[in-house]
Amino acid sequence: MPVAQEKRRVMVSKRRITIRDVAALAEVSNQTVSRVLNDRPDVAEETRQRVWQVIEDLNYQPSAIARSLIHQRSFTLGIVTAGLKFIGPSQTLNGITKQAEEAGYTLLLKELPGFHTVDINPILNMLLSRQVEGIIWAVPEIGDNRDWIQGLPELAIPMIFLDMQARPGVSVVTIDNYSGGRLATEHLLAQGYVHIGHLSGPLDWWEARQRQAGWQDALHDAGLQVSNRQWVSGNWSTASGVQEMERLLENYPEMDAVFVGNDQMALGALQVFCQRGIRVPEDVAVVGFDGIPEAAYYCPPITTVSQDLRELGSIAVQELLQAIESARQDHTTYEPKQITIRPELVVRESSVAASV
Amino acid sequence: MPVAQEKRRVMVSKRRITIRDVAALAEVSNQTVSRVLNDRPDVAEETRQRVWQVIEDLNYQPSAIARSLIHQRSFTLGIVTAGLKFIGPSQTLNGITKQAEEAGYTLLLKELPGFHTVDINPILNMLLSRQVEGIIWAVPEIGDNRDWIQGLPELAIPMIFLDMQARPGVSVVTIDNYSGGRLATEHLLAQGYVHIGHLSGPLDWWEARQRQAGWQDALHDAGLQVSNRQWVSGNWSTASGVQEMERLLENYPEMDAVFVGNDQMALGALQVFCQRGIRVPEDVAVVGFDGIPEAAYYCPPITTVSQDLRELGSIAVQELLQAIESARQDHTTYEPKQITIRPELVVRESSVAASV
DNA sequence: GTGAAAGCGCTAACAC
DNA sequence: GTGTTAGCGCTTTCAC
Questions:
Q1: Is the CB of B39 less than 7 A from some atom of nucleic acid strand D?
Q2: Contacts of B166 in chain A (CB under 8 A)
Q3: Which residues in chain A have Cβ-Cβ distances shorter than 8 Å to B93?
Q4: Which of B294, B317, B319, B325 to mutate to test the interface with A (most CBs of A within 10 A)?
Q5: Among the listed ranges A191-200, A330-339, B171-180, B280-289, which one has the minimum average pLDDT value?
Q6: Residue A333, φ and ψ in degrees, nearest 5
Q7: Is strand C less than 7 A from the beta carbon of B18?
Q8: pLDDT tens-digit profile of B115-171?
Q9: A322-333 residue pLDDT tens
Q10: Would an 8 Å CB–CB cutoff place B63 in contact with chain A?
Q11: Is residue B322's beta carbon less than 7 angstroms from any atom in nucleic acid strand C?
Q12: Which nucleotides of C are covered by protein (CB under 7 A)?
């Protein structure tokens, strides 16, 4: 076996093979090679064969960059995300990649170092300078991190926002968190619970506020009073779930059910109940939010409001591509759209009083 | 408030602003504009000011694509991943984005539809045609999905592989899963357990095999026999953890401790123990793998082998950039490297016999 | 059917 | 200091 096989090295200084190299070897003009590459009809079969042969021999690969330059099309989408280490953003990204793949688009990925963007211009400019054909802003709305939308200059390409309050003039795709909160709470009410507490996510998150509002409105609609001592806020983490549930138990001892803002905090809540000998659902019923697979194996398995984030990402790409296409067709303006995806209630032991 | 404010539309047919537009307005040659853009010294201060003014007025953004074409540099890395909906791959990606960001590199992201790639050539070609300067192959090694490395043509750019068996001639960065398996098992042995079972991941995964081998060798080294009835394989999911732990209990009733291939299956195992009244760790001790945050809040909190996947991604980028840089410097060959990251044991209640 | 010329947006090299 | 020319790799005219 030759040495080269044992220790393969990576050649680095090789000059790129261009269309002209192919043309020279095939003894045609580069224009003819271009025709072959693009499957144009007006090439003699014999020539076509010869050119293909050379292309394969040389392992020639046309430069997508040069093509983008000419066509002013990159078949690339810019994705801006944040918090990929969390489950939500990565699920959404998964949906985005899947759908983009199907449409033959490539993704330029940019993860922000944090949720609070100080200056979005460098990011937008970087994306624009790379000729992306559209942008998906997949960063959750927190505090005032959307204020810049007001001053957003007219972009030459479509942009879609995820996980934020719908605003006039911009395209938004989002889960209906408010309905999710209602769904959870109405389910508990239907089961006969009346002292329903809430462990929310951090309230500077739009999503957390929506879920909370759904809970609150459902209680109001049922003719129940809502007092401040019956809810607390965590930071989405299991650890905060433990901590805040302890506070909530103290503040609201008569609580017989609780709607928790996400499944991870719900795990923390279960932990507290477990340690104190509080039985679920006999003493306190629990409903979570998100629908992570593990929730079906908590002790006990918990009822949760399941949101399909992959679908969210997928729809965002579809909408974006549609906007790009429509723009390309009639060279006209694109009308912003607001799309809302309803979450689903998944009922498990933790909220069904009759269960053992 | 003007109508335009109420319903912002996206203009699409706007022609791109080029360096020539700026030059014309500033009444200089485009070359001078280029000089200003690139902060060259040989421009009169007065001219520089005037050009900058026009650039800002026009909100001109130089085309990164045209620049790439000239410089043969894109400042872009190609990332190939799979299974982003799982926690591992997204953690790794998180580390990659972080490090790439710091180095000023952009990422072209490609998620494979599955773990088993039939033909990698289209993927490689797509990346190469877009002038990426390096490639990170962040797909776990499963079955024969690495066989193509043998026939990999000499690439003009460096490539780094993650999560696979080291091979001569290619750069690999990986967690030391074997050591992780040993770590878990030796810890259990040190606690005095002797009937140590194993619930592995799917054995066509290299990582699962490594963890299993670590477990097996640790037992051997302790002078213990290992029989086939004392281990089973799941598919990483919590559901499979439930199912396989039930089988394992049947096959290996004297089991007093178990090393589970990941934390999610460990959750399933706990569920089974919980339902059967098997106490953890009094009756059976449990050690997981991965180190997901939730593991600290399982019932009971479980000991686990923690792997730093963000660090893995981060190191991969660093190595890749170093390879790119070294190639750019001396125009010579790049020597492949193998890097291994050791996981850490995190001890919690589930494996400490003395605990309550 | 095929080739020559021009140009996508930018910069390097050289002139002046 | 500034402008001109050529060209990165490719495609689009428009000849022939």
A1: no
A2: none
A3: 84, 90
A4: B294
A5: A330-339
A6: -90, 160
A7: yes
A8: 998 789 899 999 999 999 999 999 999 999 999 998 888 888 999 999 999 998 899
A9: 999 988 876 566
A10: yes
A11: no
A12: 1-5, 7-13
What digits encode the pLDDT tens for the residues B31-69? 999 999 998 888 889 999 999 999 998 889 999 999 999
Q: What is the per-residue pLDDT across B334-352, written as a single tens digit (0 to 9) for each? A: 789 999 999 999 999 999 9
The number of residues making up chain A comes to 356
Q: Is the pLDDT of residue B3 over 70?
A: no
Distance CA(B117)–CA(A302), nearest Å, equals 37
Backbone Cα Rg of chain A: 27
What six digits make up the tokens of B110?
A: 């490609």
pTM of the model: 0.93
pLDDT in tens, A238-268: 999 999 999 999 999 999 999 999 999 999 9
> Burial, B234: exposed, middle or buried (Cβ in 10 Å; 0-12, 13-18, 19+)?
buried
Residues 60-79 of A with CB under 7 A from strand D: 61-63, 66-67, 69-71
- Are A91 and B85 an interchain contact pair (Cβ–Cβ within 8 Å)? yes
A213 to chain B, any CB pair closer than 8 A? The answer is no
Whether B151 has its CB under 8 Å from any CB of chain A: the answer is no
* Letter string b/e over residues A178-209, b meaning 16 or more CB atoms within 10 A of that residue's CB: bbbbbbbbbbbbebebeebbbbbbbeebbbbb
CA distance B74 to B66: 10
